[in-house]
Input
Amino acid sequence: MSRQPISRALLSVFDKTGIADLARTLHEGGVEILSTGSTATVIADAGVPVTPVEDVTGFPECLDGRVKTLHPAVHAGILADRAKSEHARQLDSLGVTPIDLVVVNLYPFAETVASGASDAECIEKIDIGGPTMVRAAAKNHSGVAVLVDPARYPEVAEALAHGGFTAEQRRELALEAFRHTASYDVAVATWLATRGEQTPALPSWIGTAAYKSTDLRYGENPHQRAALYATGGGLAEATQLGGKAMSYNNYVDADAAWRAAWDQGEAPTCAVVKHTNPCGLAVGETIAEAHEKAHACDPVSAFGGIIAVNREVDARLAAQIRPIFTEVVLAPSFSSAALDILTAKKNLRLLQVAPPRREGLEIRPISGGLLAQEVDTISAAGTTQDGTDYGDDVTRWRLVAGEAANPKTVADLAFAWRAVRSVKSNAVLLAKDRATVGVGMGQVNRVDSARLAVERANTLGVTVHSDTQSAGGAEGTSGADAPERARGAVAASDAFFPFADGLQVLIDAGVSAVVAPGGSVRDDEVIAAAEAAGITLYFTGVRHFFH
Output
């Protein structure tokens, strides 16, 4: 097993959780303890003998603690190769005693940045001595064990009882240590890449560190292996409150649904998503009403879909969801009554997720590299993250045909315009009463997207009366009994109409008002078609492609 006995340990931690108990365990196991600064104080206050590092180095801590352990008396003791007799002779001649265990955790740099601290404060939380000791011990794991996580401390007692950590345990601890310092360096480099008066929107260097959270049953298909990796926060670290394990496809769809559910500002919003595309989006006076309206858009496609809401799931909403076959429900919280209802469905996955952060960069891998872009952060107020106004606010839209819309129609147009950015391009979306009634997505031309949106509005939907009908009982209709929901609806197109033919499909279906970016070389033809039909047409000047 190649166990390495532990005779001497160095403890130097920022997070003091469990450190006194660990020191006591080491002392009872006959281990000499070296320590630094406040860590040594905590150990001494616990009544455990401890040798300050400066007694070993003969050099005091200095420069406000910036230099503590950066000394050959420390690093030679960590880095000496136990298998080389020459190293042992050199240690003897130098008067250096080997160190068998290094316990270190680092200054909380990422947490300090997240707190909004000043640049000077963040710089002081860039650890130097800690990572140096961790890397030294991890490099020399053939003879040294290194601990960077307090959750590992209980393993020390067992190791002492059996003569030290095994070679395999030391290798595992070294891997964890290098992952730890790599993540730390990525955080520091990423922060520095975004500082300065001339900081570019797209930095010269992008790094990320992700930890495997769990293996998944398989990927998109059963023959593909897959796992979930977490980078910190978000859907990857959601709390699952019920149901079977998430799948790869569940995560992909859930991410799309979570984004869509938070695109309508503060209004109670529900998104029903299937294969990353919304089959229903709606705003309501209550979250239950929002779901009822969203489900009514396309109850056929909602079967086996993902439901995401931006409010707590209450008992009324839970009762609506229960009879619908649903894969996942995402929400910021669930009431106890809702959990009682929904956990009765043993396979229904319930995820409690923090609100998404709509900022920063989106990263997408391609063969041999990555693509990066700013997140589409146009808000209801019409401004992006950097303060640029692109006219999402309808007061800044340009009326190019027909009469100015009344307030109710304006609200529907604004809803449709924000909702369409959650639909895969080419995208055309129809809406009434701040709810989708038809969605045309992912087509290779805009005419087909318009036709699909109209067809789905007029064949798949149901008329919802929130005071009498639950969404759980909604079913699709077809043929002569189908409602013509496209008539009188508003429409949003994620990009310009290159010809008038796509708009004409909407006109023929009875759409009353349309919002689109504009910018086609044939805008005049598109505008003329709207004028001839007597419908309202707004241009926003910005598009919402989503590939």
Notes: The first strand starts at residue 8 and ends at 13. DSSP finds 19 helices and 21 strands in the chain.
